[in-house]
Amino acid sequence: MTFPVLDVRVTTMRWGAAVAILMTTLSCDSIGPEPKPVPLPAVPETPTAPTTPKAPEVRIMPGQIVFSDPFGGIFVADSNGTVLTSLSGGSPDFDPAVSADGKKIAFSSWVGNEDGRDIWVMNADGTNRLRLTHAVNSSTRRSSTSPAWSPDGQRIAFVTSRGAWEHKIFVMNANGSDIKQITDDDMDSLDPEWSSDGNRILFSRPSGYQEDVGIFEMNQDGSNVRRLHNGGGYPARSPDGTRIAINAGRLFVMDSDGSNVTVVMSGFDWSGFDVYGIPDESRKVAWSPDGKSIIFAIGSASKTCYDDWFNADPCGVDLKRVGLDGVIDTTWQIRSAASPVWQR
Fold first, then answer.
1. For the CA atoms of 2, 7, 11, 13, what is the dihedral angle to 10 degrees?
2. What DSSP line would sit under 327-339, residue for residue?
3. Are residues 219 and 202 in contact, defined by beta-carbon separation less than 8 angstroms?
4. 43: burial class by Cβ within 10 Å (0-12, 13-18, 19+)?
5. Contacts of 230 (CB under 8 A, 6+ apart)
6. DSSP code, position 20
7. CB contact at 8 A, 174 and 219
8. Which end of the chain has less Cβ packing within 10 Å, N or C?
9. What is the pLDDT of residues 30-75, one digit of tens each?
10. d(CA 90, CA 227)
């Protein structure tokens, strides 16, 4: 029997070195082909929970009309006068004002205040009602009305009255903080409305000495008061800011500086406004977004009012639409409605 011979030459090397060479040779010879990598099993993806689509944000859209019932309640109608929805649910809410982006509505309400009204805000769908002002007790009978948004939506101008007189204009942040009085203590001031740049506020003075009655404009802080018109009334700026409409028992329009006064309508039937209980701000007017027509409230028999003084008298008011040529649109009407806002 023969055996293979391993030729190991260790002539000049030490034994330890020879053993090392032999082991290295044997080790290298014993290595086979390099193994192939074994793939790891795939890790399954964690399933994600289905997401609920976010509900679209409700807004008052351009062309829609927000108004209040003369006896309380805020509603939305389309430009044709078709009532779309109620936002107040029968609450005693009045004189709405819509923010420029259509997301918020400021209004005055008797809710929580037996002695007068306070300023509130709510979302355009009537949710998230928030009270911003708090009337003083019955000894002063303080009431806050006629809110008006600044163009950037950061501030609200409004009127606070004590009893039947002493109407003053205040400005506060949109969350009700930092309330400041900006009109004089000696004269009544009503119906604030901001200029499109937010720098000026239009307002009226309906009572006092004759020289104090009229339509005025002032800086947003109450400074630099300037008379635009000698007569009183309820003013509203046109969408482009170049004209002012005034409801003063007749409807007329003038340039923003008080010049070029033009009578649109005269001889309003305001019999409905003489009945106790209808807010004065029902006489507010609103321009159409295109500046070609105006909606206003006029006395009607839409509702019957019962109280101790007047028994059963017509005391409703309806909204009508009139062109700048004085022609009333007989096909257009919103019954039992006042204090309109025509969103631009």
1. -130
2. -B-TT--BSS-EE
3. no
4. exposed
5. 213, 214
6. H
7. no
8. N
9. 455 666 666 666 666 666 666 666 667 789 999 999 999 887 899 9
10. 39
| pLDDT, the chain, mean | 81
**Nearest residue to 236 (alpha-carbon basis) of 278, 174, 179, 190:** 190
Mean pLDDT value across residues 202-227: 86
Closest C-alpha among 332, 264, 277, 339 to residue 306: 277
How far is Cα 191 from Cα 123, in angstroms, rounded to an integer? 23
Q: By CB neighbour count within 10 A (0-12 exposed, 13-18 middle, 19+ buried), where does 157 fall?
A: buried
Tokens of 217: 């404009």
Q: Where are the alpha helices (DSSP H) in the chain?
A: 15-30
CB atoms within 10 A of CB 144: 24
In this structure, the strands spanning 190-194 and 200-205 are antiparallel
Q: For tokens 């062109």, what's the residue?
A: 323
- Residue pair 245/270 in contact by the 8 Å Cβ criterion: no
Average pLDDT over residues 259-276: 70
3-state secondary structure of 271: helix
Write out the two tokens for 129: 């009602």
Q: Which residue has the tokens 């009431």?
A: 143
What is the DSSP secondary structure assignment for residue 35, as one 8-state letter? P
- 309-330 residue pLDDT tens: 444 455 678 899 999 999 999 9
Q: In what order do the strands lie in the sheet with 155-162?
A: 142-149, 155-162, 165-173, 180-181
DSSP labels, 39-99: PPPPPPPPPPPPPPPPPPPP-PPTT-EEEE-TTS-EEEE-TTS-EEEESSTT--EEEEEE-
